[in-house]
User: Fold this.
Amino acid sequence: MASLSENPSPSAAALLREVAPAKLDRPVLVENDRSFSWITNKICGIIEERTPLWWWVAFCVSGFVASFCLIGLTYLVATGTGVWGLNNPANWGWAIVNFVFWIGIGHAGTLISAILCLLRQKWRTSINRAAEAMTIFAVVCAGIFPLFHVGRVWFAWWLFPIPNSNAIWPNFKSALLWDVFAVSTYGTVSALFWYVGLIPDLATVRDRAKTKLRQVCYGIFALGWRGSNRHWRNYEMAYLLLAGLSTPLVLSVHTIVSFDFAVSLIPGWHTTIFPPYFVAGAIFSGFGMVLTLMLPLRAIYRLEDLITQYHIDCMCKICLATGSMVGYAYAMEFFIAWYGANPFESFAFVNRAFGPFAWAYWIMIACNVICPQFFWFKACRRNLVLVFILSILINVGMWFERFVIAVTSLSRDFMPTSWGYYSPTVVDIFTYVGTFGVFAVLFLLFLRFLPLMAMAEIKAVTPRADPHHHGH
Amino acid sequence: MSKTFPKWTNTLPLQIVIFLILFLGSVTVGITYYFTPEYTRVGYRPPQPVAFDHSLHAGQLGIDCRYCHSNVEFAGHANIPTAETCMNCHNQIKGDSPLLALVRSSYHDGTPIPWVRVHQAPDYVYFNHAVHVARGVSCYECHGPVNEMEVVWHDKSHSMAWCLDCHRHPEDYLRDPALVYDLDWRPASKEAQREAGLRFVEQWNVNPPLSCSGCHR
Assistant:
């Protein structure tokens, strides 16, 4: 100590050199040192070029599939909810499964927009626009199921606390009502977030417009954006505030969705692990869906410089983390069922794994717990075909997770006399497949008419935007 | 930038917002006023096949409600009298009045008089007259001053909110069961009504159902 204080410089410098953190180069977020104008031309080019043939083919196919949904719902409204495979005791079937599935998918968008924004994860800028669009369209698809499950869909406004001549309010003690608030807040905030982020890019598209109609249409939605310092300051503040507002939503929405199950007394549902486990599962499925959408887009539009291997690595690692959390939750459910020494609870879980729906349970385990483990390996993350297949399997698994939860517990309730088996009907299947068509139609329209990446934000994270990037 | 939109569009967003506020406001007010039973039902006053005048029979002559609606104390449904009930008197009085032609023919061949229904509870609502009149809910509370009506009209809204007003606060409406059929009786004051009403609620253990299945069975 004494020698150090008397003659600090040589030994201290040596010590500092020794403990100095290694210089690790951050991976660049835009490769090949692309310029600002290249980015603008690339992204705007997608919506300015002639509509490609593949787009029309995809659009027609999606529109056709979406019509399944319309037909299924029309038949349901004309006939009654009995056309779905719901029975007693399985009063909830595919309707809630599909609702939770679609809502869960939306979560990646909110996580990317809100939490990654607050945590200054700059890699979000390449994927946030498309992921937010995905969120909004997923919420649209999710909303269809509870809306039509009410049967008399023209009374769906009774779900909202609107004064009426019946002098009654919705049941504020019911988790299903909390769902209404959670999902409608979520949809509103997500749409707002998406739109605010779009404003500078819409102005770019407006300024590049070749026709008057295009200029006016984009101009209306660009809200007179001129890119002045004052505009940017307000924009940044609005974006930050929205990020702060939607951060709790990432956690709250799926927590409340899990309450649909967890606040009931059905064995297998009545567990406190549900909220965190559902949130992890939702982010897991959401990132699965982002990968499923972004990998083909990256290939079709040659976006390799903007969605780099680093971006894919990040998404794969989030899938790995959340998928492992979900796997941990599955294990913990069994542990608690045993440790809690409640025979009904133990039965519910043994029945899940080895009962009549064991096939669904093991599909779930294979897809959700085993699939993401491939993402430990760099070679797997670099094999984009494998990543694409795994991302689809993740969502297959997450759909089966909701199916296992909803159906196994209900079909084996407290009274063995009422036990039964649940199968969906053709109408169930048609409606569900149709929602993929609805989603695809909306997403294709998004690709065609809106810039699919946040150009303005990407420019801010390019190596060129950082004048000190050579270590000065 | 200024090329895209002419100058007058600067105030357009404000105009749209003001229009939307006014439009949505008037839609809300319109629905609240014109699309609720308060408007759609109250005042319904269809002409009847026989010009039976309640203000003459129940008002001037003082015939008790139960003389004609004889089941009201004993059954869920308060019956409309048959022509036989009318003829109890009208075979003596105004026996050949042309106004009573339909009553006489109904009496002779048994074809019911096609009265036009004024008050109709929906099929999904269970309502029992006997229970209500036995606990001091006067005819007046639901049907209004029938003893003053030349032609019966729908006097109260009969909306669910209106049912619940009484089910939630029966003390504001209950009266001495002896006065149920006295359509001219009014409480001395709001306070007197409430004081007596609370006593009735306690003495008779009046416990109106508020659960869904109380009425939607």
About this structure: The domain at 30-462 of chain A is CATH 1.20.1630.10 (Formate dehydrogenase/DMSO reductase fold). DSSP finds 17 helices and no strands in chain A. Residues 175-208 of chain A form the longest helix (34 residues).
